[in-house]
Amino acid sequence: MKILVTIKRVTDPDVKVRLLPDGSGVDTANIEYKINPFDEYALEEALRLREANPGRIDEIVVVSVGSDAATKELRVAMAMGADRGILVDCEDSQYDPGVLAAILAQIIKQEGVDIVMMGKLAVDGENNQVAQRLAHLLGYGQGTFTLEMKLLANSVLISTQADGGTRHLEVALPAVITRADMKDEDVRYASLPNIMKAKRKPLATLTPADLKVDLSPKVRTLGYEVPAGRAAGQRVESVDALVDKLVNEAKVL
Amino acid sequence: MGNVLVVAEHSDQKLRKVSLPAVTFAKQAADLLGGQVIGLVVGSQVKAVAQQFAVSGVDRVICLDDPSFVGYLAESVAPAVAEVAKEVQAQLVCCPASVQGKDYLPRVAAILDAGMVSEAVAVWKEGDHLRFKRPLFAGNILAKVAVDGPVAVATVRTTEFEPLPPGAAAPIEERTSAHPTSLVTFKSFVPVVSERPDLNDATVVVAGGRGLKSKEGFALAEQLADTLTAAIGASRAAVDAGWVPNDWQVGQTGKIVAPSLYIAIGISGAIQHVAGMRGSKTIVAINKDEEAPIFQVADYGLVADAAKAVPELIEQIRSLKG
Question: Within an 8 Å CB–CB cutoff, is residue B293 touching chain A?
Answer without folding.
Answer: no
